Amino acid sequence: MSDTTRETDEPTVDQTPAQRQSPDQRPSADGGRPPDRTQGADQHWKVVPAPVREPADTRRMGLRTAMAINAGKWAASLSQRLGLGSGGMIGGRLALTLQPDLLQRLATGRRVVMVTGTNGKTTTTQMVAEALRAKAPAVSNATGANMLDGHVAALLTQLDAPFAALEVDELHLAQVTERFEPSAILLLNLSRDQLDRVGEVRTVAASLQRALTQAPGAQVIANRDDPNIVFAAAGHPHVTWVSGGVRWRDDALNCPQCGAFIGDVDRDWRCQCGLARPPADWKVTDTGVLDSEGTHHELALALPGHVNRVNATFALAAALQLGGEEAPVLARVRRISQAAGRYDTVRLGGRRVRLLLAKNPASWLEMLDLVSSNDEPLVLVVNSREADGYDVSWLWDVDFEMLRGRPVQVAGDRALDLAVRLRYAGVRASVASTVEVALGGTEGGLPDVIANYTAFRDLHTRSRT
Amino acid sequence: MTGERVRIALVLPDLLGTYGDRGNAIVLAQRLRWRSIGSELVTVLSSDDAVPEDCDLYLIGGGEDVAQVAAVRFLRRGAGLTRAVARGVPVLGICGGLQVLGTGFVTGDGQRHDGLGLVDATTEPGRGRAIGEVTTQSTLGGVGMLTGFENHLGRTSLGPGSHALGKVVRGVGNGRDEAEGAVTGHVVCTYMHGPVLARNPKLADLLLEWALGEPLAPVPDPPELKALRTERTRVHVRNRK
Ligand SMILES: [Zn+2]
């Protein structure tokens, strides 16, 4: 679909009437019934036209929906006033309880971009939201509440915003596309996450594939260098392929479709079962991105690293798909300097430090790549709480060997495991009781702190900007 | 052993290597290097013809049901592993590797599959997954306390041709008779991830001595490794994760 990615306002053939509504319409909350998605067993893809919807009008909103919206907003603001956090989640949950159809009703008439994948969801979602705001208001759940109640909460924050950029948990995309058809779906990457969950990658890939069959009219923007993503998206009729490379390969050695050995995923592989690496529409380079006509677009992001050029390319492709114009879109994406604390420079333990999140082998590799380009003091923090997974064997899947010759401080619940890993990697490490103590042991520069999920969350809370 | 290099075979990491089991190879190579002994890592992938029989030590990790069945099929293709075992070459099988090297296993779908029969152990699915820290007292001389992380559904019964690697102090292990793992000759199997050799240097050195056929010069454990072993073998009242 390379020919559609650069188009601006003109709708493409694959858009449903609902998606063609002009972006400044209010959501039509009474919506009509969702289109029938029942498909014949032999017919994998069937484009079901959505019913023509009445122009949106909040006065005609069903009583139940109006009540649910009001209750949700009330709960959110109450929770906020009581200091129980931003309040979004509880509001979303309450509103969904009162009106189970609320998500599809709130989505109706808006152009929604769903972002999923193992790594980069939060950052990319923020980029998409910012990119869309170049054209019109966009709501977003960029704080990471990425299941249905989080989506409802985000949509409730501004009922008349024509755009929404929503991060969605990999296993929940299918629940979303059961309810409504997003304008665009971004599939970033798939790799093992929490090791306590066995067989996850294949299960997730199959679930994403099912999610896409439920959204035949959506524009899919997908990573062609990740075989698991190729497997999930290859059958969809409208795919824009981004070539972003994959740093982590150990979950993609074998064909996700038939199990045959693929080997080097960097070449144009073609499996015996027919699954193959598709040609790229967008190719991420060392400074920007190359489009299908061979034009190079400099990205010049405030956010560091190749990984963020890939994220930005996904955001750019999505924004152009939804009618954005390149210059203002890029201007906004360039200015983003942190996403929910990731990559943020903060004050911690009396020092200015940069906070980096790495929560699985693939993202550890990305972050180690990032810090290997500098010579700053380095602190690594690993916890193993429920949200992290209790098993830290994955430390041995990460090439810490690339840190050889560089002093490293380690902290966190599992500092000793990390120290043993580094010892065997030939990296000189010292164990500190806390990150603040570790930072006290470093001199000069702007230290990088790479932390896994709960460790990052705690540091982000403890830090000041 | 060719020349002065110990050839360590990492068998089918593309099928069986879900839990950082590659780390066992890193540990072995580094412990040899600390003693100025060279090593060579021989990675055997499912795209290769068969397992070579001329390695000095074989490592087989864990994976899902489908991968285990595919691994058995691959390992039967040549007799490399069996012939090496007959020569007394050490083999370490982890988790799914234990089941593959055993006499047979039942997968989640109720199907029974033959294993390679290098240890006398049969495995069936249990009622729930055993997930958490596991500590055992090893039956192997000089190895002492073993620590690891287990994550498996299988429950393993040992036949007369094998004995347990350790007696369970904490955790589930094989789920039968307080046993954990299976040992026949120089074939050592365990449910322990962690990886097991990273947390248990004495077991790593024992395998290396078997591979070399001679005692190794002792090397002191680094302080963080001693501390990690103390932290992980501390017996909690409950297996709190
Ligand atoms: Zn295939």
Automatic annotation (TrEMBL), chain A:
Task performed by this protein: The lipid II isoglutaminyl synthase complex catalyzes the formation of alpha-D-isoglutamine in the cell wall lipid II stem peptide. The MurT subunit catalyzes the ATP-dependent amidation of D-glutamate residue of lipid II, converting it to an isoglutamine residue.
GO BP term, example: cell wall organization
For this entry, the protein name equals Lipid II isoglutaminyl synthase (glutamine-hydrolyzing) subunit MurT
Its lineage reads: Bacteria, Bacillati, Actinomycetota, Actinomycetes, Pseudonocardiales
Question: Organism's domain of life?
Answer: Bacteria
Family to which the UniProt record says this protein belongs: Belongs to the MurCDEF family. MurT subfamily.
Q: Where does Zn(2+) bind?
A: 255, 258, 271, 273
Q: Which GO terms describe its molecular function?
A: acid-amino acid ligase activity; ATP binding; carbon-nitrogen ligase activity on lipid II; zinc ion binding
What subunit structure does UniProt give?
Forms a heterodimer with GatD.
Q: What class of enzyme is it?
A: ligase
* Residue ranges constituting the Lipid II isoglutaminyl synthase (glutamine-hydrolyzing) subunit MurT C-terminal domain according to the UniProt record: 357-455
From TrEMBL, chain B:
Entry superkingdom: Bacteria
What does UniProt list as catalytic?
95 (nucleophile), 193
GO biological process terms held by the UniProt record: cell wall organization; cobalamin biosynthetic process; peptidoglycan biosynthetic process; regulation of cell shape
Q: Which InterPro entries match?
A: Class_I_gatase-like, CobQ_GATase1, GATase_3, Lipid_II_synth_GatD
The UniProt keyword set, sorted, is: Cell shape, Cell wall biogenesis/degradation, Glutamine amidotransferase, Hydrolase, Ligase, Peptidoglycan synthesis
The Gene Ontology terms for molecular function here are: carbon-nitrogen ligase activity on lipid II; glutaminase activity
PROSITE patterns named among the record's database cross-references: GATASE_COBBQ
**Protein residues bound to substrate:** 129
Per its record, the protein catalyses: L-glutamine + H2O = L-glutamate + NH4(+); beta-D-GlcNAc-(1->4)-Mur2Ac(oyl-L-Ala-gamma-D-Glu-L-Lys-D-Ala-D-Ala)-di-trans,octa-cis-undecaprenyl diphosphate + L-glutamine + ATP + H2O = beta-D-GlcNAc-(1->4)-Mur2Ac(oyl-L-Ala-D-isoglutaminyl-L-Lys-D-Ala-D-Ala)-di-trans,octa-cis-undecaprenyl diphosphate + L-glutamate + ADP + phosphate + H(+)
Any idea of its EC number? 6.3.5.13, 3.5.1.2
Task: Give one Pfam family.
Answer: GATase_3
Start and end residues of each CobB/CobQ-like glutamine amidotransferase domain: 7-200
Pathway membership, UniProt: Cell wall biogenesis; peptidoglycan biosynthesis
How does the record describe its quaternary structure?
Answer: Forms a heterodimer with MurT.
Describe the family membership recorded for this protein in Swiss-Prot or TrEMBL: Belongs to the CobB/CobQ family. GatD subfamily.
Write out the function statement from the record. The lipid II isoglutaminyl synthase complex catalyzes the formation of alpha-D-isoglutamine in the cell wall lipid II stem peptide. The GatD subunit catalyzes the hydrolysis of glutamine to glutamate and ammonia. The resulting ammonia molecule is channeled to the active site of MurT.
Please report the name of this protein according to its UniProt entry. Lipid II isoglutaminyl synthase (glutamine-hydrolyzing) subunit GatD
Q: Which organism is it from?
A: Saccharopolyspora dendranthemae
